Records
---
Amino acid sequence: MALDQSFVGRTYPPTPAYEVGREKIREFAEAVGDTHPAYVDREAARALGHADVIAPPTFVFSITYRAAGVVVQDPQLGLDYSRVVHGDQKFRYVRPVRAGDRLTVTSTIESIKSLAGNDVLDIRGDVHDEAGELVVTAVTKLVARAAEEA
Amino acid sequence: MTAKVSYGSVEVGTELPAQSFPVTRAALVQYAGASGDFNPIHWNEKFAREVGLPDVIAHGMFTMAEAVRVVTDWAGDPGAVVDYGVRFTKPVVVPNDDKGALIEVSGKVAAKLDDNLVRVDLVAMCDGKKVLGMSRAVVRLV
């Protein structure tokens, strides 16, 4: 069943602040095997013009995805989460995420499409720092595959 | 943000050094812990097969993280990336052995934009199949 178009444009309340820890950044960088010193060494990060160690580009997804979860599990929306796959991911960075950031995510349903029985949902997560400045925008495309015929 | 590649030194078609990234089951478990994505399709073979997958598959976000390293290693500053997007076209199947899978990533400058920005188009392959589509990063050079 196609999702209700009236949900397009709906914005959800900002998440509680997530504090970016330097050890969490280190753990993530190690998990993706990335040894760039800007992730672990403050001096190396400063030499590149950053105020503190920065996070790898895709780090922020773990925060925005959790925020998007609130949208996909909205009972009013009625999405069958067991059929959802991650179709597409985009990030637009104003600046890199860095240690000490306290980030909140505001999620908005950007579009809902029905393609060959699949529901295709674009969820935009605007990530702001404590000063209210936009840090990065993540757009997550989720595809809810059509239920198989019984 | 100080990339180490100068805008003037690249042209459309400039190739970035290609890289290969091994991915084992252990790497997936480590990534699950670091990212908080504990979906069992990334570590539980029985579950993966039950939902119709050939075997455990890598997190798409893991593959996305590996692919952009071709850009960040080249540019010298990971903070120089201003835009990055991919489409997850095929899963990276990770067998339960000590070898796992290999993600092979190449990239080239596809466009020179204003403001010292260049667009790099990436190709990520695994087992002869393209695993990311529309994989593009915009990076600010010096």
---
Amino acid sequence: MQTRWFAGQVSQWWLWSGLNLALIAYFGYAFVAPPSSVKASLLPGETTHGHYQIELDCNACHLAADDPERHSAGNVMTDACNRCHANQLTLVNDTHPAKKFRDPSNADLLEILDAQDCLTCHREHVPEQTVSMGLTLPTDYCWHCHEDIGDARSSHAEMKFDSCATAGCHNYHDNRALYEKFLDVHYGEADHLVSAIVPSRNLKQQWIERHPDKSQLYIADADGPSNEPAGSTIETDWAETAHAAAGVNCGECHNEKKASGETSWNDRVAMSVCEQCHKSEVDSFQTGKHGMRLSIGMSPMLPSLARLPMHAGASHQELNCNACHEGHRFDTRHAAVEACQKCHADSHSLAYADSSHAQLWRSEMAGELPTGSGVSCATCHLPRLTGDDGIWVNHDQNAVLRPSETMAREVCGHCHGLEYALSALADPELAISCYDQPPHIRIRSLQMAHEYFEARRQKSSR
Amino acid sequence: MKRHNCPNISARPQRRRAKSMLSAFAVTATAVAMLCTTGCGEPAAASATPSAGITPQKFADGVHAVMMADRTVYATHVVTNLKKQSSPVTADEYWMDSTNAIPLPAQMFRMGAELVDENPEAGFTYSLRSEWPLNEQHKAKSEFETAALKYITANPGENYYGEEELGGNKYFVAVYPDRAVAEACWTCHNDHPDRAADYPEFGKDDVMGGVLVRVPIP
């Protein structure tokens, strides 16, 4: 009896020891494992919409700063923020850059609100206190430094202290469509502009100027393998579209150079190959939600990983260039609407087909309206921007939503007056319906800015 | 407000005097002697303390001389010159989003200060302040700054030196008069629509504000 009892004790001891060792091993492995679901057990809380795709790669944000003397929870995280966001903030002419607060005379203000540390306003893993734009502060934060704004701007004297960031008024970082002079310049514009057209892409012209040795290629010029499956349209797709027109042959994308210097044919074309000619597009793709995982070396984004509703049939569609630009036609018209609708099943995406903007797009596709007058998903979410080399397409489809007023300047302004655009963007119901109707409520900021400058102009003319 | 007790820095605001040849020679000789004792091939470690061979005041005076030279050149030979030529290019507060526009002298100065702020090697900060700022960012931000601005206005031609503690850190602060060196300065300020009723009418060489140089000290 005693022996059996002892044996039972021993087996129980082994059982519990084994369980504890298994738990220790599991969590120990989670610490050192590559980004994968095993790390989910270490997450202290849900991350924001901006970061949930990369939350299992802890080091993306928590890697220590290079300089151990500067290593603290604050600067490690701010360094991580800057790795992805510093350039974005520079491009939007950040209204509150950290350098603005470096003067020692700001010490008292920084004691109240440390504007040099991203984490002051944007903490992670705290979903219960996270609001729009990843803000984790009460929305009255402007008041701490600008409580006396009514003294300088009498129009602001009666405004509520937590109303500064109302759409159409102010943002903390990006005010390119909201600052006073811009509002005044665009005061009085018609709701619908006479010329309502988006800029034309001109990559082909840019390419021809840089490569005078290149000329149109035809099927007979194709240098790809001659073992295409029956019924394949690869060659005709290539010959009828931009790559053949620009003199880009099959091998320029498919020939892979090995370390030995030899080249070999590769059916799969890496994104780095696309980047050789489409650098701005590939770079910007990796700063948005479609490509951000790739930018830190993770596997491509899948619709099954998304928080937004997606079509079940598209669950395992890897997000890379070919996801929207299917080879070898790389059809930009397909990429502008059908490619989006193939995956996205949220209320905004589903409402698009019945919107007035979609009707314009269909009319353009039917040849009833001039090129550039239709409004596709890409028209708004992948705006055509003027760069140093000409017009390019920003493939960071989230950039115009950081915040949505960005869209007023980069997109809506091609067809609509600024007051109309900002008023529409301020209406959350219109956002769902793809801005199918005119805005019901008009924002006051343009009128206020105009009155301010009008008073200045009158003073100057005296 | 604390005052500096170091013999190299006056505890009271000083009258700026032209240096005699003798004192200039003495300073130069001292600097050469110190360089030689530290070894010509090994620069002495940078420090805000007088023991490094240059006082905070001397350092502040030097960097101020450079920044004011640049400021004067920009205001006189760029902004005023464009105005005299009736050029379509003008200095404009909203230059960044406008055609034919360049930054105002005050904006130019502030952008330079921000670039210095970004440089961890700089070892000092500087800023523009005024008792009559057209931009709120340039108003005095501490009791020290208020006193300094009042002093350099009441005593034209003099600088104001002292120490200040901000955010637990000590600084040597030098405040220099910012004068109307070019016609563009006083005409723009005198005609500005944002000027308040009590705003002064400026003329050539009037003190319109102050340039602050802050050097961290132990």
